[in-house]
Design a protein that fits this description.
The chain contains 13 helices and two strands. With about 300 residues, it is an all-alpha fold. The longest helix has 29 residues. Bound molecules: Phenylacetyl coenzyme A (FAQ).
Length: about 300
């Protein structure tokens, strides 16, 4: 498979029918499925606030955002299917706890300000992580990512705007915004994955140009991007060690509590059980929709094949 690596090194795109090492295919299925699962589980924390949005305008925006996330899940499951797996199979693996989704969605959304913090920080982190994936070596994943990133950037701005409004509102609204940022900051940093020296998949994924930057490099990029935005918002990031380091040309920041990250990965975050249970129930309750859609598609296939024969 040296030929394959030569293609990747030359920045050629790998397409579904091209030859590829089995491990490359498996890695992509793992990452794309995890990404797709994150999008659909990620609908839950925000879905929690649709009925309680503070105005009709906020409700319409939040509904559109959550619908976008369902759409992102669909593009990504579609991209995974080009690698020879079935979406139904991937969903079973998620429901059985055999595939992961992002750690970030195992935290609760306690106040309206959490919608702002998710948009600003979680979508902000997602963009930093995902823009390089637009140049991923696997064509269908890279192309799906282009549209997703455009939508994520709208999501990030709507979160920023929610926090901007709250931060300049009453003292209670400002405090609510600050509390949300305090709770979402560290979990957002964890979204980028374990530190580079504890990231078993990074070296190979970078050699295959699935990942373009290491977990720590992207995390640093996110911190550098976010610090000035927090100043504009008039909110404080909950890390007294954040300061500009002129020598490095980056912001220094404090130590991440990796024991919390690994606890969440092992199923012991605040909402792991609730999220998975809700997802399984939604899947069961949606069985009739899938059956109806299949029956409808079958009917149309029959009608068009009869018309074709006539
Ligand atoms: N959560 O060797 P690495 C969104 C696992 S954005 C859970 O470094 P890798 C948008 C990792 O799978 C969120 N597990 O792994 C949105 C591996 O376990 P495994 C989704 C994590 O793959 C916003 C082990 O740790 N974005 O949904 C996490 O090279 C708002 C060792 O780690 C993506 O998925 C984590 N945070 O790098 C939606 C982006 N980090 O599989 C709704 C694409 C690591 O060996 C609302 N994915 N693990 O058992 C990636 O870029 C990569 O997969 C990383 C992990 C960077 C996440």
């Amino acid at each position: 498979m040296d030929e394959f690596q030569t293609l990747v090194d030359a920045d050629e795109r790998i397409e579904p029918r091209d030859a590829m090492p089995e491990a490359y295919r498996r890695t992509l299925i793992r990452q794309i499925a995890q990404h797709a699962h994150s999008e659909i589980i990620g609908m839950q924390p925000e879905g929690n606030w649709i009925s309680r949005a503070p105005s009709l305008r906020r409700k319409a925006i939040l509904m559109a955002k959550v619908q976008d996330e369902a759409g992102h899940g669909l593009y990504l499951y579609g991209a995974a299917e080009t690698l020879g797996v079935d979406r139904a199979e991937l969903l079973d693996l998620l429901h059985e706890g055999k595939q992961r989704y992002s750690s970030i969605f195992n935290y609760p959304t306690l106040t309206w300000a959490d919608m702002g913090a998710i948009g600003w920080l979680v979508d902000g982190a997602a963009i930093v992580n995902q823009v390089p994936i637009c140049r991923c070596s696997y064509g269908p994943y890279a192309r799906a990512m282009v549209r997703i990133c455009k939508e994520e950037s709208f999501h990030q701005r709507q979160g920023f705007e929610i926090l901007h409004t709250l931060s300049r509102g009453t003292a209670a609204q400002h405090a609510m915004a600050q509390d949300a940022v305090d709770r979402w900051w560290w979990p957002s940093l964890m979204m980028f994955g374990p530190p580079d020296d504890q990231s078993p998949n990074s070296a190979q994924s970078m050699a295959w140009r699935i990942k373009r930057f290491s977990n720590d490099d992207l995390r640093q990029k996110f911190v550098d991007m976010t610090v000035p935005q927090a100043e504009v918002l008039g909110l404080t990031l909950p890390d007294p060690q954040i300061r500009w380091n002129a020598e490095r040309g980056h912001h220094d920041f404090g130590d991440i509590d990796w024991s919390e990250f690994f606890a969440v990965l092992n199923g012991n975050g605040p909402c792991n059980a609730v999220r998975l249970e809700r997802r399984r129930r939604a899947h069961e309750e949606g069985a009739w929709v899938r059956e109806a859609a299949t029956a409808y598609a079958d009917k149309h296939r029959r009608v068009s094949s009869t018309a074709g024969a006539a």
